[in-house]
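Quick question about two entries, pasted in order.
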Amino acid sequence: MELFFIYLLKSAVLIALFYLCYQVFLSKETFFIANRIFLLIGVPVSFLLPIWYLTKTVYVQPMGTDPVLESFVSDANPETIPATFDWWSFTAILYVLGFLFFLAKFLFQLYSLWLVIKRGNGTKSNGFTFIETTAKDGPFSFFHYIVYNPALYDKNSLQSILTHEKVHALQMHSIDLLLMHLLCIVQWCNPFAWGYKKSVGQNLEYLADMAATHTLPCKKEYQYLLLRQSADPAIELTIINPFFNSLIKKRIVMINRKKSNQINVYKFALVIPLLALFLFTVNTKIIAQTEEVTSTSHLNEIELVIDKNSKDEVLQSNIRFFKKMAGIELKFFDIKRNGNNEIIYISSSWKDPKGQHGTYNSWSNEPIKPFRFYFQLDKNKNITLIGYGATNNYEQQPKVTLTGYVQEAQEKKPAYIVDGQLQDKSFVFEKLDKSSIESIHV
């Protein structure tokens, strides 16, 4: 859930970036078609760019401990965290309620629009469906539907209105409005999204006005029509293209504005460095990579010590860690404890990714002696040694240790581990006092 809201926040930042670029640099230019494309592109870019990350590799010197192991040690010794108010859940509930409210409102508007179209008298002509109504609402269009009340306008005014609405229908402006509604439903708490939607609708009216005035014989008569009818009521549906709206003054200003100089087209490119800045500052992942160091000490030995006081939850944490780190399936079972909650009986087994396996059993009427499960990984994360063993000076040793040692070139021969210590190549098994051997694990 937290990741979703971070994504939503990044998307909202990009919507704000496109909106501010439009308002500051483009809203007063007469590049209406280019403005439409710019605003339309801004929506998918704002939703797709946050999931595209740049990667930056940072080389670091190898440390004496493994960060994965450190995170495991923290996990293996859990601390009780006091319960706090779950702000993420509260935010999620609040967001979903707002989302459902605006979605329901949008669906209700679609239903109301369907009722208006259904109740009118429709005729088809040249790819348009003209819906005549008796309502006093102002004329509007939605896709190829053009709705109007012919009794409210004279012949010339009606011709101008229909010319304007045909532009909306031909250029499929309803797609823009539906997309803006979906944007505001998803980002209902982002004020820039609502401003974005208003700017899109405003620019669509400029487009239709520009095309209509180029077609009609008198540009001034068209402006007088806007002024005369500006007080007429408009249908309360924001998903349609109404002829009359609250932007009459701005529309008249843009009709009479001098055509923008083509050199101002460069303003559209101003958003590119801002998008790049977003990527480099917000959407860049830093990957830490250990530098290759010439050294013969390249084995990591990971050791888990089990004693009479080992907790079940800690053992389970170890199991998860070994599975994640090296693919080792470690199990503890048949655990029995005495009245002091000390382990007196325990069985364990392991299996590595290559199918090799081993077992360990310890039982007595007394608490078990400490033993360890260990494995070694080379620099390629391959398992070189694995098994159970005894442990010495347990009270002074950490529960999980990470050590390195020098691996010397030697002939292929068995590796002997005595009392938890790897023996060097001079060790001779035959010379070992057999009577001192407590257990042998292969």
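Here is the second entry:
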Amino acid sequence: SEQLDYLSGLGVTCLWLLPFYPSPNRDHGYDVMDYYSIDPRLGTLGDFVDFMQRANARGIHVLIDLVVNHTSIQHPWFQAARKDKHSKYREYYVWSEEPGEFDPEELVFPDVEDSIWEYDEVAGAYYLHHFYKEQPDLNISNPAVRDEIRKIMNFWLELGVAGFRCDAVPYMVKNVGVEAEHDVLGDFLSELRQYVSERRSDAVLLAEANVSPELSPIYFGKSDRMHLLFNFFLNKKMFLALARQEAAPIVDALKGLPEIPKSCEWLNFVRHHDELNLDLIDEAEREEIFTAFAPEGNMRIYGRGIRRRLPPMLEGDARHIRLTYSLLFALPGIPLLRYGDEIGMGDDLSLEDRFSVRTPMQWSCERNGGFSTAAAAMLPHPMIDEGPYGYQNVNVADQQRHSDSLLNWINRLIRLRQQCPEIGWGQWHILETDEPSVLAHYCEWQGKAVLTLHNLAERACSATLKNCPDGSLLELFADQAYERLNPAPTAVPLDGYGYRWFRIDLRTPSNN
């Protein structure tokens, strides 16, 4: 609650909270013991209600994690299920007398688990778990389980949340069989949408679904399922483009996305709280990204991903970092920033698996980075306290005092994006250029358009635009003070890792 003014000042309009439920924390809080309470280490329900009131007063919508693919093994439902095979809770989970064959690709944590079935001595049977063995899968095909999910959603909607980020959606129906999987999932997502709409018509559902583009229509439906979907496909291709310093992978990704209902949208991101997952691209492409951004073994995880934040991946190059976030905000869809992105936080590769990118926020150069006054040993994860990304060198307080800091630059970027409804509402178009490193595209809406150019290469260039719409240009944002381009030029100069944003008034012809 104390930092809501900071978020509001930054321009944040929606806040996604990771799990805060009581949990033994085998999986960073995603192993839930009680869906109707707050982990006492974080506060109370009273604290949450107070937080919601403060957020709403500042115009900040709040999304929370809906983690109903599985529970903790310590959840009362599972404890009742394992002790009594006749309990109604037995059917809340998926059991088998003998573990069946399974596709190793179904293991979410292949470095840790070797099976999706675990034998329980008390139950005398195997239970299904696609994640850690301490996270038994819920049986979504059971109407009683779906009714429990409805109650959970209604509870938090009543407390004012604006929607849910639905965790691990593709795994919710893995137990029903491949042939029926998509039909059952679609029906379930439609039910979730109905639950939300009945309680709060303006609430949204955001699906975490790392799936190929051709499967994404299952999650959107006909505007009757998920409102938002993480754009994992574009995210992977964006890093391939950064590795190659060529725009083609991003162009291919945008053209490869299916048409979605007008009331739905993609959520774009650079990094989030998990690894940079590269599992849906070719092995050769994955190796290119590994070579460029994770050359050492401890920078990788699960054989498919990178456990680093962006600044260390780009070797701290301020130009490259700003180019990447300019690109994020210019792409069609909604941009997502993770805490610490705005100040260029780093990672701690000495920590295990995903903990490397989940270090505490660095607010100041004071004790524990201003995150907490507790003893360092009491922190949920160690602070980054040494090196170029230590809190003494990277923190909010210092960057707020410097006009040219990444924090103040991100603030300008957010404000600019809010002034460009063309990107969010308009139709996007790729522009051909004679420079392979330059991504040029514009988004058109209500007679106006926003044109952006991003040079993914370190060398400067001058990009010729071959099919640019006619209209007067107004430069909105750039990596430096370029010469004014009016009337519209045949070529646009760009520095290495340079970017330029223009508004085009399509109703006003240019003078050339």
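Reply: The chain has a mean pLDDT of 93. The two ends are 54 Å apart (CA to CA). Hope that helps.
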